């Protein structure tokens, strides 16, 4: 039934009283307005803000469902794929607009606009979700607004946690933890679910680098797992403020409870560290923070900063290694080539693998890059950016308060950007040296611009070393009961939907 027909039917109906007609007319106008707004490119949240941007060209994009917009997409496990498909359908790879409830979004799926967004001071903030605020993460580096406080956090961690000198100092720790993992895998005698082992190793690595100690491992594992769950959840009240008071999914209750438990756990470590005086060489990041003369952090800020590092630095590394091993099993020829490189350059039975050795393994590094291209741990670059003021992307106007995302997965799977994008071929990175740390937006798994990942060198150093140890020690093949299933599940990071179970067959005996 067309809207004109409905209008005439209700308005001129012989049975209606004037009051009834007025009510119907108002109802009709309301319905038309809502539908009219909803049908604008990008959906309802964009329509509401259009008053401000009326004179500018609308950014193309789907309306999504009435009121909900694309909320169901984000509640599902494959948002990156759905957004990539929609950007193509709407011919909007440079920039697409959409709504999730009352939140306005833009997403870039092209290197050019990705560079504009990530490099622009206008997008230097991040939208803090309710769970992050409850965990006090707005005082941690990842969510703090781009101001003096955030700058001082970046400076102090660049100097005392992520500097080349500090990374070199942590080399022995990385290697020891790598060896522990090899032992654990050997002890499994046959088939192994690698995720648990890798996650445990990555967690210990960050804990030791940041806190200088491990604490109660069981309790810590529980806290981290709970944190991933609440932070990775799509929380409807972030986008439908009217629902906030009900806390339907229990996100606020769970985050508050977790925040308290984390406070007690980390607070205890902070107190213990206060008592110990370590010399400069043996100081962990926490000791440095406790000794700061300028820009001293209070305890709750310190806990937020340190805890965020644990979150950010653990699952990204473990998940990336799990994807790499899955690829090694699916491509035995590539695995053989990498093992041959390690045996030739370092030696199959050599002693410890060192960081300088890793620099001589271009094929191994190419495997890491190719896995980051095909399975980026943050396909939507983890946590988004927020427009601080009205700005432009290309010729499009983007109002203040818009959430901006880069779909790195769409870029790395675009055949206009990469030849044979769905083929796993590390050789492409031997033929062409592509920087992956943010200067080339064709592959920027660590983001780019002023909020680029500060832990990228630490993450890469860890992944390179552990991969070299894993490949030198074992031959990897499929489990007899489970194949390799590459299905994805986007939570806080993009995980394998089904944890990888595989056979790790010891190669030659070595003393590494
Ligand atoms: C394979 C490993 C890793 C990947 C793929 C990764 C990826 C990312 C990405 C995509 C961002 C957002 C960048 C942007 O908005 O432009 C980010 C931010 C961040 N990452 Fe990483 N990361 C990794 C390892 C680490 C490690 C080991 C740490 C610390 C121990 C860390 C700490 C952080 C922090 C604190 C931020 C927020 C920075 C800010 O907003 O100023 N990351 N990471």
Automatic annotation (TrEMBL):
Membrane topology: Single-pass membrane protein
GO cellular component: membrane
PROSITE patterns membership: CYTOCHROME_P450
Subcellular location field: Membrane
Cross-referenced Gene3D superfamilies: Cytochrome P450
Transmembrane annotation, as ranges: 26-48
GO terms for MF: metal ion binding; oxidoreductase activity, acting on paired donors, with incorporation or reduction of molecular oxygen, reduced flavin or flavoprotein as one donor, and incorporation of one atom of oxygen
Ligand binding (heme): 453
Keywords: Heme, Iron, Membrane, Metal-binding, Monooxygenase, Oxidoreductase, Transmembrane, Transmembrane helix
Cofactor(s) essential for the protein: heme
InterPro entries: Cyt_P450, Cyt_P450_CS, Cyt_P450_E_grp-I, Cyt_P450_sf, Cytochrome_P450_78A
UniProt record, GO biological process: terpenoid biosynthetic process
Pfam families found in the cross-reference section: p450
Family: Belongs to the cytochrome P450 family.
Protein name: Cytochrome P450 78A5-like
Organism (species): Salvia divinorum (Maria pastora)
Phylogenetic classification of the source organism: Eukaryota, Viridiplantae, Streptophyta, Embryophyta, Tracheophyta
């Amino acid at each position: 039934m067309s809207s004109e027909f409905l209008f005439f039917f209700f308005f001129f109906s012989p049975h209606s009283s004037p009051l009834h007609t007025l009510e119907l007319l108002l109802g009709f106008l309301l319905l038309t307005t809502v539908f009219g707004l909803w049908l604008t490119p990008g959906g309802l949240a964009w329509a509401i803000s259009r008053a401000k941007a009326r004179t500018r060209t609308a950014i193309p994009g789907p309306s999504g469902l009435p009121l909900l917009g694309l909320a169901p997409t984000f509640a599902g496990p494959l948002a990156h794929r759905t957004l990539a498909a929609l950007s193509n359908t709407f011919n909007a790879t440079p920039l697409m607009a959409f709504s999730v409830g009352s939140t306005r979004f833009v997403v870039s799926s092209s290197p050019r606009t990705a560079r504009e967004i990530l490099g622009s001071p206008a997008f230097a903030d991040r939208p803090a979700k309710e769970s992050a605020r409850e965990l006090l993460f707005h005082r941690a580096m990842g969510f703090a607004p781009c101001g003096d406080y955030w700058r001082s956090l970046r400076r102090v961690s660049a100097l005392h946690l992520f500097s080349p000198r500090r990374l070199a100092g942590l080399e022995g720790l990385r290697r020891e933890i790598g060896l522990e993992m090899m032992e654990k895998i050997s002890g499994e005698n046959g088939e192994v679910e690698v995720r648990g082992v890798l996650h445990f190793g990555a967690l210990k690595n960050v804990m030791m680098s940041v806190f200088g100690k491990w604490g109660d491992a069981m309790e810590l594992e529980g806290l981290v797992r709970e944190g991933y769950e609440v932070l990775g959840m799509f929380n409807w009240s972030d986008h439908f403020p009217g629902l906030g008071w009900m806390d339907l999914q229990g996100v606020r209750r769970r985050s508050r409870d977790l925040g308290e438990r984390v406070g007690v756990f980390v607070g205890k470590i902070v107190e213990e560290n206060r008592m110990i005086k370590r010399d400069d060489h043996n100081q962990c990041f926490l000791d440095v923070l406790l000794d700061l003369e300028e820009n001293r952090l209070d305890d709750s800020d310190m806990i937020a900063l340190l805890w965020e590092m644990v979150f950010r630095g653990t699952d990204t590394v473990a998940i990336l290694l799990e994807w790499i091993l899955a690829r090694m099993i699916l491509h035995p020829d590539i695995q053989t080539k990498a093992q041959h490189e390690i045996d030739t350059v370092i030696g199959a039975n050599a002693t410890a693998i060192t960081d300088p050795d890793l620099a001589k393994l271009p094929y191994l590094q190419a495997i890491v890059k190719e896995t980051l291209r095909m399975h980026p741990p943050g396909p939507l670059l983890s946590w988004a950016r927020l427009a601080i003021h009205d700005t432009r992307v290309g010729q499009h106007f983007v109002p203040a308060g818009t959430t901006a995302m880069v779909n790195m997965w769409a870029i790395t799977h675009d055949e206009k950007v990469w030849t044979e994008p769905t083929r796993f071929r590390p050789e492409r990175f031997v033929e062409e040296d592509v920087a992956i740390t943010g200067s080339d937006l064709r592959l920027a798994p660590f983001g780019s611009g002023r909020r680029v990942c500060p832990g990228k060198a630490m993450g890469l150093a860890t992944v390179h070393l552990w991969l070299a140890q894993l490949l030198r020690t074992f031959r990897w093949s499929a489990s007899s009961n489970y194949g390799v299933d590459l299905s994805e599940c986007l939570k806080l990071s993009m995980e394998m939907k089904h944890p990888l179970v595989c056979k790790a067959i010891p190669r030659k005996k070595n003393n590494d």
